[in-house]
Description:
Layout: E1 7-9, E2 12-14, E3 18-20, H1 29-36, E4 43-44, E5 61-63, E6 69-71, H2 80-84, H3 86-93, E7 100-104, H4 109-119, E8 127-131, H5 147-158, E9 166-170, H6 176-188, E10 195-198, E11 202-206, E12 208-209, E13 214-215, E14 223-227, H7 232-245, E15 251-255, H8 261-269, E16 274-277, H9 279-284, H10 287-303, H11 320-342, H12 349-381
Parallel strand pairs: 3-16, 4-7, 7-8, 8-9, 9-10, 10-15, 15-16
Antiparallel strand pairs: 1-2, 5-6, 6-14, 11-14, 12-13
Helix pairs in contact: 1-3, 5-6, 6-7, 8-10
Bound molecules: ligand RRO.
Ligand RRO binds near residues 23, 47, 136 and 200.
Amino acid sequence: xxxxxxxxxxxxxxxxxxxxxxxxxxxxxxxxxxxxxxxxxxxxxxxxxxxxxxxxxxxxxxxxxxxxxxxxxxxxxxxxxxxxxxxxxxxxxxxxxxxxxxxxxxxxxxxxxxxxxxxxxxxxxxxxxxxxxxxxxxxxxxxxxxxxxxxxxxxxxxxxxxxxxxxxxxxxxxxxxxxxxxxxxxxxxxxxxxxxxxxxxxxxxxxxxxxxxxxxxxxxxxxxxxxxxxxxxxxxxxxxxxxxxxxxxxxxxxxxxxxxxxxxxxxxxxxxxxxxxxxxxxxxxxxxxxxxxxxxxxxxxxxxxxxxxxxxxxxxxxxxxxxxxxxxxxxxxxxxxxxxxxxxxxxxxxxxxxxxxxxxxxxxxxxxxxxxxxxxxxxxxxxxx
Length: 385
Ligand code: RRO
């Protein structure tokens, strides 16, 4: 039987712990319906502002080396009323009963309050993610890097007594002092914050186009948020640290550079309750949810896990025994890979490779014997070959 990928996030039951990050391919009902009909466990809409907006000037994204991507989209979205509308939500869910989650990223705290009031107790909405980490709004800092603003936002929102679970999307932190400061503020509002999603893109990076001797993207002097595999290690550290510092009642959602079932497994080990996919969804499309869910199942089967709770948050401390175990596992995997490559891969490749090696040795023995016979014959005949 396939292992279960189910999880409970912010009190919601998700069939799979993997779903989309707000951002790529999440701005319209048609894009969201493709997420819904994949193996994603929930549907999360693009961060909304009060009014529809087109975002920053083009070009505003960069994808190149398979290691990192960059964007400075500047919150293009259809406006909060679109994401709240029954028509949008029904169409986005595509006949599934997967949780539908809003994301909001107002230009001001008052905008966020207004959007949360409009959401009210809309029965079609299962949760709301308050984005406190967008790096790309021209003239606005990243809210959650300013502890006073973070506190003000959470204090204001907690007074609204929301009817829906609230998640907050956080920027990456890089130092213990900053982790501790952010966690202290969030813990004060533990009754209002159901989950923390870490991390948003690493803000204000710069990609240089060496041919044109200019930035690779147009807005904000070329500054944008970095995502993709390069940020996974920062994301893992943020998930781990937030899990350690936050009240256990607050779930952690891991996001940042996740591309495979193994990446999801790592996030879960570090304490994530669910994992979002952003850049890979952007590049590969919604089929990534099927592939990644399958890979996670395969890994869990191999390791003998039946549910994610068996390993969630159980990252072990470094040890010499661990090193030996890892070396052994890598060696075993390496040998299998070598054999598979030689035999053309696939199941049973190991058997064919052994057979090929046996045949090769047999051919060599026959050749030596024949050569001996040939020498003897040529000597007999006195011929010179
Ligand atoms: O739209 C964006 O430019 C954007 C947002 Br709202 C965000 O939260 N993170 C990001 O990398 N881009």
